[in-house]
Amino acid sequence: MLPIEFKRFRRLRRSALLRDMVRETELNIKDLIYPLFATHGTGVKEEIASMPGVYHLSIDLLKREIEEISELGIPAVLLFGIPAVKDELSSEAYAENGIVQQAIRVVKEENPNLVVITDVCLCSYNPMGHCGVVHEGEILNDPSLELLAKTAVSHARAGADIVAPSDMMDGRVAAIRRSLDQENFTHVPVMSYSVKYASAFYGPFRDAAHSAPSFGDRKTYQMDPANVREALREAAADVEEGADFLMVKPALAYMDVIRRLKDTFDLPLVAYNVSAEYSMIKAAALNGWIDEKQIVLEMLTGMKRAGADLIITYHAKDVARWLGK
Ligand code: PBG
Fold first, then answer.
1. So what's the ipTM on this one?
2. CATH code for position 210
3. Which residues have C-beta within 8 Å of that of residue 204, sequence separation ≥ 6?
């Protein structure tokens, strides 16, 4: 006889099929959203130094990329643009023929079924590199709303399926929703970057988007990484203002925030597996220090287990290949 009674968990771990049967969380290709960086010019395919495997692509080369993404079964892309000119009013953000507007049209031409999500922000489009309108060293909230709403409407007009404001100005979801409705885009959902922290994990992205702030930082509008109750207030405001999706960004260091939002709200929840989360894994993998495939799958499964319904990730194409169709 055994000296004490205990439970035998290993009974359900004895074979691969048995483990499959009792698995609680599954990562699927349809959970993935792949970010793309569109740039002016032709024949441009420029690797982002701090993000191996991620490129700036000119519009003509986007077509082949979209073909590949579609063949892999990835349902959605998130579009960013590198503008030709930056000015104080962030004009190219809402120009009819701006880089993102052109990219949307090309993607839709290539595959009308692919879900096109656009990042709505001003930071890449003005020389100050801030997400709103700058005046005398201040990032102004209310004057930014009009430009953000204009940007969202111009994306919808070009054919975007979903607009995703990432600026963190207060009231932008309401402003965007109102403008979309006024322009008869009542069917276009808003995916709000509801809970976006002032994070060092965006470093490689800012190289990629040429969007690093020219002065100061983003701490007066992005959230303090130490706060989670504030995250619930931010998300609640977005729900009230008409958001259709909520997002937590970054993901890896904020798994508890993902879980809190999931337990509190019933909207689809998106996690953004951001640039430095990608770069850290790539760097270690290139050094032969980790098993990239196993690490990425474990990390993304963890995000789903934490409560993410969808994951924006630079690993999307690799993951789609690993998971098969
Ligand atoms: C634009 C924006 C950023 C990211 C997405 N949209 C950068 C920032 O806020 O500084 C970061 C994405 C990433 O790091 O992968 N505001």
1. 0.95
2. 3.20.20.70
3. 48, 50, 51, 275, 276, 278, 279
